[in-house]
Amino acid sequence: MLIPLAFIAFWPTPVDQPVQGQLATILQFLHRHGFPRWFNYKFVEAAANVALFIPVGFVSTLAFPDKTWWRISAFGLIISCCMELGQLLFLHNRFATPQDIVTNACGAVIGALLAAATLKKLQARRLSAADL
Fold first, then answer.
1. How far is CA 127 from CA 108, 121, 124, 132, in A?
2. Judging by beta carbons within 10 Å of its beta carbon (0-12, 13-18, 19+), is residue 44 exposed, middle or buried?
3. Sign of CA dihedral 6, 7, 8, 11
4. Separation of alpha carbons 114 and 52, rounded Å
5. pLDDT (0 to 100) of residue 132
6. For 18-52, how does the pLDDT look when each residue is reduced to its tens digit (9 = 90+)?
7. What angle, 0 to 180 degrees and rounded to 10, lies between the N-to-C axes of helices 69-90 and 98-131?
8. Rounded to two decimals, what is the model's pTM?
């Protein structure tokens, strides 16, 4: 899971660069057909950052079920900070931003909470099945 994340984080150019034209065309089409203007490139980029880190929080929670969701979220935050620092120091065509850190961390939080809820639900099912 961390290998694809590292490839995305440390690709020498922005990973969406090859599709920026198509994305702009799609967004223009959506805006012409009633989508609100706030649904723009910045929103799509932020949503992609969140989505990118949901698996980090989810899988980490499954791997370490004894850790609380906020510790797993802190792990996601640390990974995000390391990625952004690496981009800032070594990749001049990439843009390290505090917003990326926040959205990545939010993704880790969502993933951790989803996994914690899933584990809790499975545990409740096991307990109710054991009562039968």
1. 28, 10, 5, 9
2. middle
3. positive
4. 15
5. 66
6. 888 999 999 999 999 999 999 999 999 999 999 99
7. 150
8. 0.85
